[in-house]
Amino acid sequence: MNGAELDLQLPDQPLLIDGEEVATGAWDEVRSPYDGALVGRVARASAGDVERAVRAAGAAFTAGELPLWQRIAVLERAAELVGARSQELARLIAREMGKPLAQARAEVERAEATLRFSVAAARTLGGELVPLDALAAGEGRIGMVMRVPLGVVAAITPFNFPLNLVAHKLGPALAAGNPVVLKPAPQAPLSGFALAAILRDAGLPPGWLHVVAGGADVGARLVADDDVAAVTFTGSTAVGWSIRASAPRKRVCLELGSTAPLIVDETGDWEDAADRAVLASFGQAGQSCVSLQRVLVHERVAGAFVERLLARTRALVVGDPLADETEVGPLIDAGQRDRVKRWIDAAVAAGATRACGGAVNPDGTLQPTVLVDPPADADVWRAEVFGPVLCVRSVASFADAIAQANDADYGLQAGVYTRDLGRALRAARQLEFGGVLVNDVPTTRFEHQPYGGGKDSGNTREGPAATLRELTEERFVALSTT
C-alpha cells in the first residue's frame, strides 16, 4: 500500500458532550510522527466543557440504569462495526500514532475482541447468596450481595494503543452500567473519537459517553471533579501516582510502566526466544508498557542467543508506518526519540556494548538497538525506555536471573524460557510480577486475562472481567421473609 494515497487531512474533530458535537474555537493539531503531515485537528476542551460533560454523565446515571440487555446489544453491535471498519481504523492508528500498518491491523482486531469480552463479562458478572440463617438471628432472612456500578468514570488513555486501550476503558465501564467521560491522549486522540462514534452508531444513548480532548489540565479537571466516582488511567508512572495522591476518596485504577524482563535458561528454546524477542522489543518502536527491555540469558547459550538476535534485528524493515512491509516505525515525536538516543549513548559511555543500531536514520526513525551488558544503574536498564532498545546480560544461574529480574522498580509482566518444569514453577512463585509467561515473551497480552502488576507498575488488574469488578462495588441486601 502506498502511503501517499492516504495522506489526506481528516475533517476537524469537535468534542462529544451529551450527544452534541462541540467546536470550542480552540484547535490542537494532530500530526504524523513519521513525516509531520497534518492528520487532523481536534477541539480543545475548556474547564466549562469538562464540567458540562461530567454533569451530563451524572444526569444520565441518576436518571436510571441503562438496562443490561441494552448495554450488551450496544457493545455487540459496536464490535461488529469495529470489524467492518477495520481497514480505516488501522490506517488512522498508523497515521496518528506511527504504528506500522500490520501492527495497527492487529490492534483493531484486539479492540474488537475487547468489546466482545466485555459483553461476555457483563453476562456472567453476578452476586452471591449469604446464608444468614447460619446465625439464629438470621432465621427467616435471605441475604444477597449485588454488584452495582460506581457512577461517572473518567477514563484517561495513552497514545501507544489509541484504539484498544480506549476499548479496554469504555467496554467494561459501559458494560457495568457506568457513564464515561473519555480523555484520549493528545498525541493520538482521533482513534478514541472514532470508537466513540462507533458506539454512538451502535445505539449508545447520548449521556453515557462524552469525549473531551486536551492536555494535562483537562485530565486534572476530570480527576478533581467531585461528581467523578472513579478514574481509570493508563500512562506514565509519575502521572499515575500523582492522580492517585490527588484523589484519595475516589476509586483510582492505574496501569503504568515496566522494564519487562525475559529469562532464558540453558534448557530453554533460546532460538525461539531470540526470534520472539525482536518484535517483542522493537514492535511499534518499543512504545508499549510491556515492551521487552531486559534479557537475562544463561552464559552457556548467551553467545549464540545474541548472534541470532542481532541477525534478526538487522533484518527489520524500519520506516514509513503506512507501508505494509514496515516492522518498526517512528517514536511518537522527536523529543522522545532524542531522549532515547541520549540514554543509549550514556549507557555506551558507561561501559555497555552497542551491538547494533543506536543511530537516527535519514527519515528520523531510530534504529532498533541492542545493548550488551549495560551497567545495572543505567537508565536503559533501570528506567522504562519506551523506545526501540533491548538490553542483554548473561547470568551464571537461574537463581541469579530471578534476582536480577526482581531487582526493578516495576512489576508488570515477565517471561521465562525453560524446559525444566521445576524452574518454571519456581519462576511463577518467585518472580515479583503480575504476570509470568512461560516459554513466551512478557509482551504477550490476552485481552481477557487479568492484566496488571505491582510496585510502580500500578494498582489494578485490567481485562474486561477484572475491570468490571473494579468499576462496580458490592452492596449487601437482606430480605426478611417473616
Strand order of the largest sheet: 14-15-16-13-12-18-19
Strand proportion: 15-25%
CATH topology of the largest domain: Aldehyde Dehydrogenase, Chain A, domain 1
| Radius of gyration using CA atoms only | 23 Å
Question: What is the CATH architecture annotation of the largest domain?
Answer: 3-Layer(aba) Sandwich
Separation, N- and C-terminal Cα atoms: 73 Å
Question: Which percent bin holds the helix content?
Answer: 25-40%
Structural class: alpha/beta
The overall average pLDDT, rounded, is: 96
Supply the CATH superfamily name of the largest domain. Aldehyde Dehydrogenase, Chain A, domain 1
Question: Which outline best applies?
Answer: globular
The total tally of domains equals: 2
InterPro entries: Ald_DH/histidinol_DH, Ald_DH_C, Ald_DH_N, Aldehyde_DH_dom, ALDH-related_metabolic_enz
Organism: Conexibacter woesei (strain DSM 14684 / CCUG 47730 / CIP 108061 / JCM 11494 / NBRC 100937 / ID131577)
Protein name: Aldehyde Dehydrogenase
GO molecular function: lactaldehyde dehydrogenase (NAD+) activity
Report on the structure:
38% of the residues lie in helices and 21% in strands. It has 482 residues and is α/β, with parallel strands linked by helices. The protein folds into two domains: 3-257 and 460-477, Aldehyde Dehydrogenase, Chain A, domain 1; 261-441, Aldehyde Dehydrogenase, Chain A, domain 2, CATH 3.40.309. It has a seven-stranded mixed sheet, sandwiched between helices. It has a five-stranded parallel sheet with strand order 9-8-7-10-11, with helices on both faces. A three-stranded antiparallel sheet has the order 5-6-21. Helix 3 crosses helix 4 (101-124). The model is unreliable at 1-7 (pLDDT under 50).
